[in-house]
């Protein structure tokens, strides 16, 4: 491998963070075109990338494009170089991350922003390192400790924790033998009222304690309780030589003081952890209960930082500067985002309440429905991460099968359980709710997802560019899928018979105008001849053609025309930083989590459909609106967050692909699967949508293609998409409920 002392050899170009961002370099000044590497650079990259090999470029200073052409390009003429395809080079830390990045740009694969492997500690930013550090580092003066976050700590936790320590101190003074612990609690009461700018140190044990029979000399640490490592050996004479007085004080503390304070700190720890941004307070409480309160009182010293002269041999146990850190939304536990970790207990609560309290004695049906719907969000996150982990550690065939099988499992689970419940009850409203949810997912992924990404990304980047060719492939498939899905509906409008439930003559003239209500096209005239002989065969034909078109799209974008996406991965590292891939979830672990999450998803979907009936019957809001908004977009929230993260990193191509791929999967996979399900389990679901669904979907697709035509966008175009989506929501909100509900 080349070293820095070898001037005749080239270094690989690398980055510290390996973000999922195309490396695009722009010149300064208005109107200047985007500057990429030279044409010969591109041709050389294309040549070296044969058979999917990972290639590297010449090492240059950060932020500058490679200006000198590699030697290999001197063999080719300028005409050949001008015909080269522009390649977007992404940098990966290891082979697993390279596979994950490559999968992000593959059609039909789930786009995933988070890392599936553990990132080297030295490659993390200082902000991230601070999130995972213990509260035992003394820093220089960072300004005043009177901040909004610290005041919030005082109002939420500080005052009553301090009061509790005062009460425990009084109890320990009353016992007499626990007076040393009483003095410690009195000092801790002042500390926890305002712990910022103060330090808790563990001092060396006094000589009087070290001289007690040689007991402390035999221990790895001088703690008489549970605060340090286990002693190497224990002598029976240690307990006798410690003295009755100290033994009685320790027993009084462990029986009267410590349990109450440990419980209080446990509650603070849980509450602060759930609030995420107050995780430093959770660390403060956990470390206090596990270390400080288990040390002998004479070893705990509390001082202000400006008065502290820290000895070299003194151990700093706690040193906190601020209670709130806004960057804790990046915090992860074993690769799992902290929000997904905090929402996991919600799944358990939902399942216990849903199946134990079947008679709604503890909670009502609307509450259970809300809990079940919220539980779908973390489960969707776990399913997405499991799919990304398996795909990144497997070959293309396994990754494609996993993505095709479990990519839409969240939505399909809810739709199928709703159709089964509607079939058992003979209620057509559930089928209409499923159609509304399908339409809401399609419209939301076409308008809301790219619109939000454009707006939020446009705040940081004045203009964002994306691969218009790849977006055009998805748009063409979307046009095809929308046309195929709504073909039976258009057929029924042309050949069906209009039937109205109630008509009134408003002119008192037999030949005058009539006002009719609850009108629909009847496909069951003459014993359903039109439906069974014409509409149903058309539905089955469309349901076969749409998955076939999806497979053709996969073959086109992944095999024959993969160069459209212009992606190639470089897996090099900075000199001196070579690390093997340490995956968060192995393939077997990811598979187990995927299956368990799918099982829990099925249970939550069953509970949601079980308790949605009171909402549909008693709510004054249109069932159309409930299906299009709540049931459609809540399961897609993890995807929306992923899209926003990509947009913030100036990678709008992936943000757009997230919405397009979900919309294509709705039409080309989810709807055909539902039609196939109705063959084996007859339900009220037919592929005939209301006029409102047809017009909203077609208008959304046309508008999206118009916006994406030039391959660049800004926050204004994103605002247009979001506003159109809000207008459609208003239409659904004021629309009357569908017939049968």
From TrEMBL:
MF-aspect GO terms: calcium:proton antiporter activity
Family matches, as InterPro entries: CaH_exchang, NaCa_Exmemb, NCX_ion-bd_dom_sf, YccF
GO annotations of cellular component type: endomembrane system; vacuolar membrane
Principal location class: membrane
Subcellular location: Endomembrane system
UniProt cross-references to PANTHER family, sorted A to Z: VACUOLAR CALCIUM ION TRANSPORTER, VNX1 PROTEIN
Protein name per its UniProtKB record: VNX1 protein
Gene: Vnx1
